Amino acid sequence: xxxxxxxxxxxxxxxxxxxxxxxxxxxxxxxxxxxxxxxxxxxxxxxxxxxxxxxxxxxxxxxxxxxxxxxxxxxxxxxxxxxxxxxxxxxxxxxxxxxxxxxxxxxxxxxxxxxxxxxxxxxxxxxxxxxxxxxxxxxxxxxxxxxxxxxxxxxxxxxxxxxxxxxxxxxxxxxxxxxxxxxxxxxxxxxxxxxxxxxxxxxxxxxxxxxxxxxxxxxxxxxxxxxxxxxxxxxxxxxxxxxxxxxxxxxxxxxxxxxxxxxxxxxxxxxxxxxxxxxxxxxxxxxxxxxxxxxxxxxxxxxxxxxxxxxxxxxxxxxxxxxxxxxxxxxxxxxxxxxxxxxxxxxxxxxxxxxxxxxxxxxx
Length: 364
What we know:
By secondary structure, the protein is mainly α. Among the domains are: about 105-205, no CATH class; about 300-360. It is about 65% helix and about 0% strand. It has helices at about 15-120, 125-130, 130-145, 150-170, 185-195, 195-205, 215-225, 245-250, 255-265, 280, 300-320, 325-335, 340-355; strands at about 175-180, 180-185. The protein is elongated.
């Protein structure tokens, strides 16, 4: 407080202000303590919430894993049941196919055997031995189907025997009618009597073990491999003619044809060429397009060795004996070279002669 004379008294100590400051300090300390407690409580709450969230996530993952495991187990069970059902259906189908084929064969054998038996009696066989004719024919047919060989011949034989009997029974073929009775002609008797021998020969061919290569063929093949190939020696070029000699010859008159030929140097004979040069030497001077031959030159034994797996693969895929054209195409696709149908047929025949074909499940 300042009086009129400008006198400013010293400030007096205010107890109330000190009390207020003390109270404010106490309030501030209480506020800091409450803030610390609130912060600690908040941290505890956050930690508890995080722990609970982690527990819930872990439980969710566990439930998800159990659900996936259950679904996978159920799916595997369904898959196994479907697989078992498919296998059972396949076994049932295989049995049906097998037995239906057997029943068809049994019925066909019964129908054809009766006609073949009557045909044998017609040409003069006694009933006690006439049944052997349908027996050998039907056994030959069954073996042909099992071995996949002579199928056409076997079926043709059964058809011919049945057709011949029925036509002869009606007096239309191979018989002469006299007083209402049918008498077989001599050539029909000869044909029926030779059926057994013909079947014996064919059964020997289709059941014989594989043929071994002949010694002569093996020796010739060895000689061809060991024979040295003589390379072709090119003829040397003629020496160049001097320019002076050319000018002089231009000024002279042209000689007669005979003189021309006498003046020409004799042509040198080429070097002898081997009868069977190696493929690489024959292609030495060829162009790149002509270097690759149409087919590799191999012996029949080599063809059997390299083309045997191709033939068996075709046989397994087609479930029958491939034709010559199909076999030739398969050999070309296998990068073994291009062969003709006749060559493929010879290779196929040699393969079949050397080893029997494997039996197929549906061919039994």
